[in-house]
Amino acid sequence: DPVRYLGNRSTGRMGFAVAAEAIARGARVILISGPTSLDPPVAAEMVQVRSAEQMHAAVLARVAQADAVIMAAAVADYTPTAGPLIGKLHKEEGNLTVNLRRTPDILGELGRRRAGEAVPILVGFAAETSDVVERARQKLVAKQLDLVVANDVAQPDTGFACDTNAASLVTADGVEEVPL
User: Fold this and answer.
1) Catalytic site includes residue 165
2) Cα(65)–Cα(76) distance, integer angstroms
3) Annotated catalytic residue within 8, 99, 151, 165
């Protein structure tokens, strides 16, 4: 509704940092971002979206221009079937049930569309709380990715809204640990 929403703890910081580094290395960057309070890198072509469906459309509209797609966004896996309410949902007696439907799997679709080609390079992120590397391996295979950056968001000083991070870089060839 106009007051509350279903969301996650992601700030967009990782995506913006990756975009800034790519620009510093000379890349043309199209930064597709959900709501955030961060200032985007100056040289990035900025595309603002509010929903998983809008991000899906924005990515698909631009993927043909890309040598690499780095999906650091924490896109919602589910969304309310009724969509957003026009007015505030007021508290009433008893419980409330919210029915959810799956949102488009943007990276999965890109992997299927690429069909074994080398371009664009596909990089996914996996924010996990258990079995971090195994879940990243599963994502790598299922979505036909080149790299998954796996974060154990249950650990202190990593994950969402932190100035530091640690990750496991998972590829078909193995795992490289990036310490804090």
Assistant:
1) no
2) 25
3) 8
